[in-house]
Amino acid sequence: MKKAICSTKDYLVSGETFSIVWDNTKQYARTYPMPNAKQLDSYYASEDYISHNNSNKNPFALTYRIARNLMFRVKHRMFKNRVSPIAKVLDYGCGTGEFLNFLSKKKYETAGIETNLHARSQCKEKGLNVVSSWEKFQNNKYDLITLWHVLEHVPDLEQCLSSIQTQLNEKGTLLIAVPNLNSFDAQYYEKHWAAYDVPRHLWHFSKEGMKKLVKPFGFELARTHPLLLDALYIGYISEQHKGSRFPFLRGVFRGIQSNIRATISGEYSSLVYVFEKIK
């Protein structure tokens, strides 16, 4: 059974309206209508899309980058005891390559995939090994593959997960971070929830939906981790979508409220799923 959760709009580029359609069988939702591959690039064409643009110098962008860099250490702790100190790591959807840069300094052997040309060119300027598609790394194997807020952007989920299964070493680790459709802030903000981010976000996951999606590809969920700062960021942008006065203060308050409630429910605004390859 499928049903529309809500209608929301593209607040970043086009102003167009899209529906969020829940699939009860899959236990996750999709954006409808879903743009085709040629259309998708146009929805990223904004200097305010921070993960593809390291040159934006406005105060919010600078604050975002400071928080992002602090979170690299948090992310590293999620897997450093699961892989070798000299592990081969692939970051899929690596953006401007900041996380790869961090890992390179830790002596990991790193590689990245980034489909956006502008972001990829910034990776090249840093001297990072980043290409545009899986095919260019098809003979390589990795101990760890990470997708930080990337899977929700991928048009073909099955093809992506099949490539990951092929290129991850036996007993390798897969980390997937995505927004959580069942978080308090998602329920509170409804159509204004910034993590819908249509149509760039094509998919919207629940915890059960993520497990059901990944399991057939030979992965078992080891544990989950919350990304606590995400709730504050999403709250702030959501308040902007609502046209609220003092959006930063209101958003931070709702983000903290979401994190507190999630200590009981486990439904954090964003979750990192740590999967182990079992076959």
Please, could you describe this protein's structure?
The chain has 279 residues and is an alpha/beta fold. The chain has one domain (46-197, 213-277): Rossmann fold. It is built from 9 helices and 11 strands. The protein has helices spanning 37-40, 59-79, 98-105, 117-125, 157-167, 184-189, 207-214, 228-242, 247-265; strands spanning 2-9, 17-23, 28-32, 88-92, 109-113, 130-131, 142-148, 168-179, 203-205, 219-226, 270-277. The strands form 2 sheets. Strands 6-5-4-7-8-11-10 form a 7-stranded mixed beta sheet, sandwiched between helices. A 4-stranded antiparallel beta sheet has the order 1-2-3-9. Helix 4 (117-125) links the parallel strand 5 (109-113) and strand 6 (130-131). Helix 8 crosses helix 9 (247-265). The two termini are 31 Å apart. The model has no long low-confidence stretch (mean pLDDT 91).
Outline the fold blueprint.
Blueprint: E1 2-9, E2 17-23, E3 28-32, H1 37-40, H2 59-79, E4 88-92, H3 98-105, E5 109-113, H4 117-125, E6 130-131, E7 142-148, H5 157-167, E8 168-179, H6 184-189, E9 203-205, H7 207-214, E10 219-226, H8 228-242, H9 247-265, E11 270-277
Parallel strand pairs: 4-5, 4-7, 5-6, 7-8
Antiparallel strand pairs: 1-2, 2-3, 3-9, 8-11, 10-11
